[in-house]
Design brief:
globular, 22% strand, 305 residues, 14 strands, seven-stranded mixed sheet, Rossmann fold
């Protein structure tokens, strides 16, 4: 039998009540020591929903307590996600053009560390607009996303986009640049996705990860139900170190332009050999940020009338 929390959430999403969830421990460091940061998040219709948010007391990672089975997320992002957010399933032209402009900003930010041309993979690319500025510079580009309507939109204008969740992508292992702009906070299994990205990378390939849910949420005064995890600079760096990337540049500057406030960006290079010392350092940074910044700010929301 499903729990009352599962049933209520699925009803709010207008999804079948056959999906099940389980309680999560920290998916980064596997710690079982957590503190409750929020008892609820903003759900469908901008109403609160009882999905507790936890902070790991070992590494500072922030994540939802409940994780549904993978089939739930496949169905949600293929059929329900855009309807829940925007009231329609088709991308608007303004959304796509904003993607293109964000890609232009991103290319300028990365240009000095990129080869003149190469292969780019956009994981969770939506309609694929971020890839266009790179393609115009002679790059071979490919993306993937589980949202059928948005994938079809990008394919109609000639972009190579696979209709697949990030956990089931099967790219070859020679991409010079892999980007994950915001979508890593949505995936079901973050570790498997990072493993696949590492396999897909060229020997000294670059990985850029954007985390937006936490920073934007703090600006707005709420976290939303759409994100499985709320990535900080330290949690992204931890994931990179764990899976064979060396973080070389971390910034809260608007790398993709002004339309994505609150985002943090971490750039890593493949070839980093995992060391317990580096992971320990990142753990301390994450734990400190949780204790001194995120926990006080999030828990202060409880006291608001």
């Amino acid at each position: 039998m499903s729990t009352p929390i599962e049933q209520h959430y699925l009803r709010r999403l207008n999804m079948p009540d056959t999906f099940r969830a389980h309680r999560m421990d920290c998916e980064l460091c596997n710690s079982t020591h957590h503190t409750v940061l929020l008892h609820s998040v903003q759900g469908p219709g901008e109403q609160p929903i009882d999905l507790p948010v936890l902070g790991c007391q070992e590494c500072g990672h922030i994540f939802q307590q409940y994780r549904f089975e993978e089939a739930f997320y496949n169905a949600y992002y293929d059929k329900f996600y855009r309807l829940s957010l925007f009231g329609n399933s088709e991308p608007e032209r303004a959304f796509f053009l904003d993607q293109v402009r964000r890609g232009e900003h991103l290319y300028r930010y990365l240009k000095e560390v990129l080869p003149a041309t190469g292969k780019m993979l956009d994981v969770g690319c939506s309609a694929g607009g971020l890839m266009i500025p790179f393609a115009k510079q002679g790059w071979s580009v490919r993306g993937n996303d589980p949202d059928r309507a948005y994938v079809e939109y990008g394919k109609k204008i000639g972009l190579a986009i696979d209709l697949v969740s990030a956990e089931h992508m099967s790219p070859s292992g020679d991409y010079n640049l892999i980007i994950i702009n915001g979508s890593l906070e949505h995936v079901h299994d973050v570790n498997h996705v990072l493993q696949l990205c590492r396999q897909a990378s060229a020997v000294d390939g670059l990985l850029l990860i954007e985390g937006r849910a936490l920073g934007y949420g703090l600006e707005q005064g709420y976290l939303t139900h759409n994100h499985r995890r709320y990535l900080s600079a330290s949690s992204i760096e931890y994931l990179m170190c764990k899976h064979g990337w060396e973080p070389i540049r971390t910034t809260h500057d608007p790398v993709c332009g002004p339309t994505r406030p609150g985002a943090v960006f971490v750039l890593g290079r493949a070839g980093h050999r995992r060391t317990d010392e580096r992971l320990a350092d990142v753990k301390v940074q994450g734990r400190t940020a949780l204790e001194e910044i995120y926990q006080p700010r999030l828990q202060a929301w409880w006291a608001q009338p």
